[in-house]
Amino acid sequence: MELLIQNLVSPVVLAFLLGIIARMVRSDLEIPSAIYQGLSIYLLLAIGLKGGVALSQTPPAELVGPVLLTLALGVLTPFSAFILLRKLGKLGRIDAAATAAHYGSVSAVTFVAAIEAVKHSDIPAAGYLPALVAVLEVPGIIVGLLLARQSQSGGIKSALHEVLTGKSIFLMLGGLIIGTVCGAEKVSTIAPFFIDPFKGVLFLFLLELGIVAASRFRDLAQAGWRLVLTGCLLPTLHGTIATTAATYIGMSTGSAAVFGAMVASASYIAAPAAVRIALPKASPGIYLTMALGVTFPFNLAIGIPLFLKLAQLTS
């Protein structure tokens, strides 16, 4: 309970709640789209840079196990999501596959929130974790699209191009490469812009996400209790498996907890862009609402503290 309270009473989580309250009381608060796009670019590039610096300081042998585990879960989680969405959520094949692609991918903001949570608990996490975010983002989307069994020629090919060249992967991988090549000493020259203000930018980004999530609460009510329940069960299932497996292969307590939160999250940047192209008949009101309106706040409030506690128990 104490861990849950500590995680909830943090600036980034409270910024998210502030955004929700602003929408509920019909405040005229609004972050311009151009600024929101700028905040997204900053966060993705900064995450990649910090991960690249950490990679430059990590022996390659330490990455083999975590990368293989990430790829395996990136392929398996869309299948479990697809089955639950079909059986419990009662979704059709197209909507279930589209939503499964989101749950197979990863939310960079949830990852950052998990990093901040373990820091707050004084439990160190490995620096190579941002590289795993980039590895996890793609396979789940591909599997989700394949599950839809699309007959339109070029649909999956276009979606793959969108995923690999989209800003989330492009900026994160770009930052990762720059950080790896330059190392800590050279990256320190841009640290006053890309490292130090990171939490402040994340605060503004979460404020905007709170506004967006609250604007979809009506869609959530229309989706019904089955989808809300599925949106809570999926992160619990995926995060528990991921945290336990990460501990089993020797990842540290903090790393296993963050890894569990990564696998438990659902994408709302890369996956929607790909799904819009490959599965135009899928309903955004379902996959966006579940990823952003249910699973994202669930992980902030319950998932991250749960995976941290599980990592502490299994380590």
Automatic annotation (TrEMBL):
Cross-referenced InterPro entries: Sbt_1
Superkingdom field: Bacteria
UniProt xrefs under Pfam families: Sbt_1
PANTHER family: SLR1512 PROTEIN
Name the UniProt record assigns to this protein: Sodium-dependent bicarbonate transport family permease
